[in-house]
Amino acid sequence: LFPYTTLFRSSYYEYIYRLNYFLRYVEEKGSSMTDAGKKRLTGEGYFLRAWAYTNLIERYGGVVLVDKPFDDLGADFVEERANFDDCVTFINSDLDKAYALLPDKSATVLGRVHKDCVLALRCRLTLIVASPLFNDPNFPTGGITRGTYSTQKFTDAYNAAKAI
User: Fold this and answer.
1) Distance CA 12, CA 113 (A)
2) DSSP character for 147?
């Protein structure tokens, strides 16, 4: 995988492709791994994919959601950009999976992803989603560039900040 400074939009999708490939590999061929190791690595994969998509939607609004590696290089890629709210749902789903799989901070080696990292990213995501840029009462209908206006998004951001 790459350091943060080299990630641009096209690189994000390469990063996501590698994470999708990794998640599939661990699921299919991770039989030689311990259950704890497999669980931790899968949780880290979901967290990192959620992190990449959070960065993408913050910059571009709704983006193309890819949850599996594409093996057929000759196939046409016909995926379309998802609505902003669908992207947020996808990211939250990955964060839920990561939270269920990752250990607590006290049981983690320094520098590894743990449950508190998931809570922090969810806090950042909900603050982005609740911001006037993406949750504007003057433009209440959602779409690719912004979400559907809802006051519940403020409550979600408050609860996520309180959780961390």
Assistant:
1) 19
2) P
